[in-house]
Design a protein that fits this description.
Layout (H helix, E strand, L loop, with lengths): L15 H18 L7 H18 L1
């Protein structure tokens, strides 16, 4: 069973400031992504195929 990852970095870690900055940047990026125009079914499928191709090439 996997341990749930906390959204707040642990202050006992040496690099907790960097982790907090990274988490804040990711949160901002997710909020900006939420305002995009939804993709069509064809566009989603194209992205899916491209992602799968990259995964298989890197494996």
């Amino acid at each position: 069973m996997k341990k749930a990852v906390a959204a707040v970095p642990d202050a006992w870690e040496d690099d907790w400031e960097a982790q907090a900055d990274t988490a804040a940047a990711q949160q901002d990026a997710q909020q900006q992504d939420g305002h995009q125009v939804p993709l069509t079914k064809t566009e989603r499928l194209t992205q899916h195929v491209e992602t799968n191709r990259r995964i298989w090439e890197s494996a």
